[in-house]
Amino acid sequence: MWAQRSTEGFVNPTPPAQTGSHTEHQDPRTTPSGSEQETLADAGVTPEDTRRDTPGSPLDDKLDDEDYPAYSMGRAADILGVTPAFLRSLDAAELFVPQRSAGGHRRYSRYQLHLAQRARDLVNQGTALDAACRIIILEDQLAEAQRLNAELQRRVD
After folding, report:
1. How far apart are the first and last CA of the chain?
2. What is the pLDDT of residue 69?
3. Whose CA, among 18, 74, 81, 108, lies 20 to 30 Å from 102?
């Protein structure tokens, strides 16, 4: 017997809609589950906004934002090919401070993943972790100073 979990956590023995001789199923990759729909509705996002073919949806802004904390620690570690302990050590070395979810879990942005990648590359070349973090911070400060200097120079010219 097919069973569907309701939003209250109880099981409803409701079969899916049937048309003809086959059962219609929604694509789980494009259709949010019941609890996801409630969370999205609380944020003012309609199910139509979550479709991949809807340009200009509110989610586009978050997905394009380098600073949006979209990745869990496990996913970030998988993407970078490092252990979660390495990511925690970057937090302890104060290279960056990941944001926290409502449950207290670390969440990483794409920008933070780029910093972690740079740190991993330096560590793989034999640089100590603290030194790698300091190098990255100084390189970023230098790049920002050069950008600001170039901007001021354009104003003078």
Report:
1. 77
2. 87
3. 81
Domains of the chain, by residue range, sit at 64-156
Write out residues in the chain with pLDDT < 70, as ranges. 1-63
**pLDDT tens sequence across 77-91:** 999 999 999 999 999
Rg of the chain over all Cα atoms, to the nearest angstrom: 23
| Cβ–Cβ < 8 Å for 14, 45 | no
Number of H helices, E strands in the chain: 6, 7
Report how far residue 91's alpha carbon sits from residue 72's, in angstroms, rounded to the nearest whole number.
14
Q: What is the pLDDT of residue 66?
A: 84
Residue type, 143: A
Here the tokens at position 53 are 């073919």
- Widest distance between CA atoms in the chain: 77
- In percent, the amount of the chain with pLDDT more than 90 equals 54
CA-based nearest residue to 57, from 30, 25, 34: 30
User: What's the CATH number of domain 64-156, 3.30.1490.120, 2.40.30.200, 3.30.930.10, 1.10.1660.10?
Assistant: 1.10.1660.10
pLDDT for position 63? 67
